[in-house]
User: Fold this.
Amino acid sequence: MLQSTFKKEWLDTKRQGQALWLSGIAILLLLLACVTGFKSHQSYQQAVNEVSQSEQLRWLNQGEKGPHSAAHYGIYVVKPTTPLAALDDGLQAYQGNVLRLEAHIRNDSLFRSAQDNVPLSRFGSLSPAFVLQVLLPLLIILIGYPLLAREREQGTLKQLLAAGASPAKLFFAKCAVLFTLSCLFLLPVALFLLYSQTANEAPYTLRSALFLLSYLIYLLLWALITTTLSSLLPTARRALITLLTIWAFATLLLPKLAMNIATTLHPQGSGQAFQAKLESEVYTNARLDAIEKFKQQTLAQYGVSQVADLPFDYAGAQLQFGEQYADKIFDRLFEARLEQLEAQSQSYQLAGLLTPFIAVQTLSMATAATDFSHQQSFENAAEQHRRLMQEVLNFNQRDHGHKAQGHYTAGKELWQQIPEFSYQYPRFAHYLPHYVISLISFAFWLIVLVLLSLFAIKKLRLEEQR
Amino acid sequence: MKRLILATELKNLWREKLVLTLFLTTSVLAIVAFFNAHYFANKQRDVVLAAQQMQQQTIQNAKAGLPERLASTENHKWWEDPYDLRGQAFYLMQNYATKTPLATAPIATGQADVLPYYFKMLIKEKQHIVHQYDYVHPLSLLLGQFDLSFVVIYLLPLLIISICFNALASERQGGQLRLLMLQGGSATHLLTYQLLLRSALIVMPFLLISSLLLVIIRDQMGVTELLSYNLIVLCYSGFWIALTAWVNSRAKSAANNAATLVTCWLALVIVVPALVNTSIALLDPTPSRIHYIDSLRAASDDAQKASEKTLAQYFQDHPELAKNGSGASDYATKKIATINSVERAMEVQDARFLNAQQAQQQSAQKLQYLSPALIVQTLLVDLAGNGLTRHYAFMSEVEAHHQALQRFFANEIAKANQRGDFAPCDGCSAKPTLTNLADIPQFSSEFATPVNSYTPLIWLLLLAVGLLLIAKRRVNKLDSANNKEVLVV
Assistant:
């Protein structure tokens, strides 16, 4: 059954012509997207390596200076990517990839490359993810809308069923044909993933497998939607119009609306308000009081009446106290902001129950490590590194500052005590809780479509009896 | 005959419940898109207002607190003292450069959610100022705002296609066309009235509702802007109606028409813009911002290492600050000189970015003719005041303001230094050196907004007219062929 359906559909497709050249164009676009994606990933990663090395050298060779001057000099760290970012660059252009680590301040990441682009860039660029998520479902629709509807229109459906063809087998054979054809478009992606497994030191096997699996499920969902509607609707024309409407809603309208609703439901204050809040909560009289209390406690602990009599440099101890005081406020305010943003992410993912596009987009960016959660993970790691830097520098000032004649300075030996920031993404399993809703959405869509398929098969059986 | 065709068409659409459905769909789209973008523009306006209020409040507070400060004998740390020029320049200044959204902003958000629209100014390298941005969920930036331009560019053509794809075809397939011709009608008339009536059901409610909302809710909405908006939408819709007429004139089946039109939509609205975008990025790539950081660090290091030399060079460039024999290389002047030096060293890098962006913009202007969607997006974004032209004007004002601030503080710090206000006596606290914060230069948000060019609309109109002419010739042939058949019969 499957083989004969394949042959028949292949002949039909060849005769139609339109589907063949559309497929050709889609393959070309996908290959072009893969090549440009790979090139831009390579140049980005090269820049990350070069600048990270250069920053590290700059840090080590900054010369003799006070540890606190070094803390203000700071260091820039750059977010690395995984090879899968070549296939789905996700939010890379819309979130800064560089972070400045310095004393007293927890910075936001810098330089969103989208800011350097012309407004036309908002139409989206030709990335493999764009082709797979947006164009491929449309191709499936254009190839698949007449699969059963035209058979019905031409009267061949009744003939087939009367000749003893099983409705279920016929339905699944048609669906399998469509799914297999669409899977052919995944071949360049699969080859790229295979190549990246062998070419990279960190192969990201689980991520690659999940990336491919999520697209396989996505294509299966579209194949099921197309075959089911082609089977349920009376004419090919109606099937086409309905499917196109679903596609426009699913890939264009709903994601945009869902995110707009998410940001309205979980509103976030402006950057200006956030900065003002940071400044007003950190640099307060309460901070001055806390510093004074710390000073009195320290003096009491060592049984002296002035800081000059302490067996260490009080300036270093106070700097560290000030950092820890500010860190608590940073944690509270940044955490509150993050909660709002996470709520927006979750709310958006929930809309995956309305369109499989959101589920596949979320999982694709997640496996490629180009989504918001991975960005947060990088920023958190960078912040931990900033705190470690401050601690090492302040403690060094505390322990050695008082021994120096005049202004205390340190050198390369101290700078070397701070380990190089080298960020590795945690295992994907670590992030899974962030994507539970998207996984459930996929399962939900599969169940709904299987039920709908069974209903379509039942209708086909009834047609046989009519 | 005209009335008969229109009445029949309307009756058919009413029977299919399409009139109400389309009216509701386009109305809802217009309302949702308008309010969503209006809400976004208002959020930006509120931030701008808050910044301006904060600036005024700080001036007022400083005025009120001045007598107390003048009477105070405490030791004030200059970096925490609002009456100290150095404290204000490097840490405390509440001075904002802002870009207020225009009344037309809900038409198209464009890059307004990505590009910065306010800057908190301080005397530090402009590179550290102009790269601030509002921290929002990056996914909402990727997906973009649901605004009027989104509905116009993506959804209106789809709605036009969905209602017009079977104009003429169903009458031809059902045999009504020949009946109509027997009564003296023609395929040309039928197609024209069908397309006009059906598309009017989509475009008119959308334009009426969105225009009405723009006039009622957006204060200061100008007549010219409103007319321009309507003209752009009508021209774009006209192109899609013409394309539908051309496809329908080929006398193929309705399903074939639908597939062809959707393929055209996909090509013109999704694929070509994405390809153009990718080509622009490949042809004129923006230099790497990561490498930019590297250059900035190197320039800062060099300037720091040569700070005394930098200061000497600075006084050579600004002799007015060094006069009266003051050779004191105080911290603040040295810092400003270093900042100047870094900015000068980064000029080449900044120019590279600017050149790449301008080259991209020029390529975009040339390549926009490949897709009506690109033309309309550029026009709507510029009309909304969210395009690059207005942004560049804003940025050049920001740079001019930054320079004005630098000049002001450099001058005042030098004067205060010469007067010895920072160190009136050994162990004394600095005198207040900035008693009126209103003396600090303030940003004028009344910067000139360049006039938009509507030349690309002519191309859109030419395309539409060309398609209509071809369609007319084809349908005329159909008319004559059908007439012959009628005669034979």
Notes: The beta strands of chain B are 95-98, 118-121.
